[in-house]
Amino acid sequence: MMKLRKLMFVLPNLFTVTSIFCGFYAITLCTGEAGPVQLYQAALAIFFAMFFDGVDGRVARLTKTQSDFGVQLDSLADVMSFGVAPGLLVYKWALAPLGFAGLFMAFAFTACGALRLARFNVLAARNPHGGGGRFFVGLPIPLAAGVLVSLIISHHAVSGGEPLRESATVPVAMTVVGLSLLMVSTVRYRTFKDARPSRKSALALMLVVLGGVVIATRFHPAWVLVACCGAYLMLGLVESAVQVRSRLVARKVAPGAAAVAVAAVIDDEDEDDAEDEAGPRNDGPAFL
């Protein structure tokens, strides 16, 4: 039984290491004179890294092999697979014509992702027994990488493998900058961990499916992934804007009471943030 238990500790880490391999493979595809085909394959590799990154935590929870070791390993994997690899990929795909400015933007994406993960670890350390929170603090780095990957995959499918036009360089650069800022921001994005079967959730799912069908039929199926990523980005921004507006209104109505309320809300958010970002996923001190 003890040997079986130890083997179970290895399983989640194997998924995390596989995610690292996918990121490493994407980097090798981007080196040298990478053409549209190699960049497309690199985007697919990062997409698979996202899959393995999502599976490792669920496997750890099912096998009850969560630990701080898993959080650190997962963060290192995320820096490589969703920070370095997408940064190099988007530089090769669109930002290279901008020279040093394009190089700096690609680096900023990687650096902001690393900063976001450092904040993740700090908040997880504040509440090591947390988990199951409703919000992420800032845009998670896998989702930021997912936006870039979806753009590259969709462009390759729509254009038939043609290189990106120079006219699209500036919009892509603005997207990279925006994603970088969102990762280090305090915009709160839903985790959907509290989602339960209900009329509201069923209606939301129907709207998403209907929107995907409309986009696939009127434009191109490849743009459905881009639309889903864009909708998630906007959801966080809209909810944060509504929250800020509510705070401003509360301050105008009752300045003294509002200050206390805002302070309480901030404290609650800090606790939620620690819970949202906490939840060690893997274990493995016995294998160090």
From TrEMBL:
<keyword id="KW-1133">Transmembrane helix</keyword>
<feature type="region of interest" description="Disordered">
    <location>
        <begin position="268"/>
        <end position="288"/>
    </location>
</feature>
<keyword id="KW-0812">Transmembrane</keyword>
<keyword id="KW-0594">Phospholipid biosynthesis</keyword>
<keyword id="KW-0472">Membrane</keyword>
<dbReference type="InterPro" id="IPR000462">
    <property type="entry name" value="CDP-OH_P_trans"/>
</dbReference>
<dbReference type="GO" id="GO:0008654">
    <property type="term" value="P:phospholipid biosynthetic process"/>
</dbReference>
<feature type="transmembrane region" description="Helical">
    <location>
        <begin position="170"/>
        <end position="189"/>
    </location>
</feature>
<keyword id="KW-1208">Phospholipid metabolism</keyword>
<dbReference type="InterPro" id="IPR048254">
    <property type="entry name" value="CDP_ALCOHOL_P_TRANSF_CS"/>
</dbReference>
<dbReference type="GO" id="GO:0016020">
    <property type="term" value="C:membrane"/>
</dbReference>
<feature type="transmembrane region" description="Helical">
    <location>
        <begin position="223"/>
        <end position="242"/>
    </location>
</feature>
<keyword id="KW-0443">Lipid metabolism</keyword>
<dbReference type="InterPro" id="IPR043130">
    <property type="entry name" value="CDP-OH_PTrfase_TM_dom"/>
</dbReference>
<dbReference type="GO" id="GO:0003882">
    <property type="term" value="F:CDP-diacylglycerol-serine O-phosphatidyltransferase activity"/>
</dbReference>
<dbReference type="GO" id="GO:0012505">
    <property type="term" value="C:endomembrane system"/>
</dbReference>
<feature type="transmembrane region" description="Helical">
    <location>
        <begin position="135"/>
        <end position="158"/>
    </location>
</feature>
<feature type="transmembrane region" description="Helical">
    <location>
        <begin position="7"/>
        <end position="27"/>
    </location>
</feature>
<comment type="similarity">
    <text>Belongs to the CDP-alcohol phosphatidyltransferase class-I family.</text>
</comment>
<dbReference type="InterPro" id="IPR004533">
    <property type="entry name" value="CDP-diaglyc--ser_O-PTrfase"/>
</dbReference>
<dbReference type="InterPro" id="IPR050324">
    <property type="entry name" value="CDP-alcohol_PTase-I"/>
</dbReference>
<keyword id="KW-0808">Transferase</keyword>
<keyword id="KW-0444">Lipid biosynthesis</keyword>
<feature type="compositionally biased region" description="Acidic residues">
    <location>
        <begin position="268"/>
        <end position="277"/>
    </location>
</feature>
<protein>
    <recommendedName>
        <fullName>CDP-diacylglycerol--serine O-phosphatidyltransferase</fullName>
        <ecNumber>2.7.8.8</ecNumber>
    </recommendedName>
</protein>
<dbReference type="Pfam" id="PF01066">
    <property type="entry name" value="CDP-OH_P_transf"/>
</dbReference>
<feature type="transmembrane region" description="Helical">
    <location>
        <begin position="100"/>
        <end position="123"/>
    </location>
</feature>
<feature type="transmembrane region" description="Helical">
    <location>
        <begin position="201"/>
        <end position="217"/>
    </location>
</feature>
